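Folded chain entry
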Amino acid sequence: MPLFPFFKYYIPHMLMADDEYQGWLLPSGTLVTPNSWAILNDQTVYPDPSVFNPERFLKDGKIDPEVQDPQMAVFGYDRRIWRIANASTWLSAGYILSFNVEKPVGSNAIPIEPKVKYCSGMVRHPDTLECAFIPRSEDTRDMIGSVDA
């Protein structure tokens, strides 16, 4: 799958003018809810959507502009796309990469194998998933120590 959307459905939008969808008339004022899960699992756009396959976005070793960018569905739609979300994602990734994220160690000093289960509902997220964040450098350790709790 290109990405697992956190929200299966986004905030409803009100149509400003009459519209037609697959033969159905949607009058102005109708509330329409985008279905991100369906968009990101469209097999005509993303073959085998449940398979992790970054190569689906490449053609001859370069990003294929013909393949729909999943960010366009994950961070909103049209005029309401959350433009700073991509930057926030990269900042968060940078913070996480300053740590080694490891399996937690049990009382017997053996790493605990995670069992990933997802909650269903409006917001999709993993159930409790334990891990250990180990700072990669003294700079990271100092940064953590300088933050007021």
Q: What stands out?
A: The CA atoms of residues 40 and 46 lie 7 Å apart. The longest strand covers residues 99-102. The chain has four helices and ten strands.
